[in-house]
């Protein structure tokens, strides 16, 4: 895979919830952290995503906020 984004988090798909047109894909990136992405049902099919498969959560944003508690 070649991609310009540097913010990619490798993990394992732990849940896929299909909706009418949009799916929610949950990826366990380790350390107790889960990343959830909303993608089209068509993309789930094209990527061959199934629970247990490896995938990358790729974060591409113009702004990233930082907060402390």
Secondary-structure map:
Layout: E1 8-18, E2 22-30, E3 33-40, H1 41-47, E4 54-58
Antiparallel strand pairs: 1-2, 1-4, 2-3
Overview of this structure, please?
- With 69 residues, this protein is mainly beta.
- It has one domain: Beta Barrel (OB fold (Dihydrolipoamide Acetyltransferase, E2P)), CATH 2.40.50.100.
- Helices cover 10% and strands 48% of the residues.
- It contains 1 helix and 4 strands.
- It has a 4-stranded antiparallel beta sheet.
- A hairpin with a 2-residue loop joins β2 (22-30) and β3.
- The longest helix is centred in the middle third of the chain and has 7 residues, at 41-47.
- The model has no long low-confidence stretch (mean pLDDT 91).
Task: Kindly summarize this structure in a few lines.
The chain is mostly beta strands and 69 residues long. It has one helix at residues 41-47; strands at 8-18, 22-30, 33-40, 54-58. A four-stranded antiparallel sheet has the order 3-2-1-4.
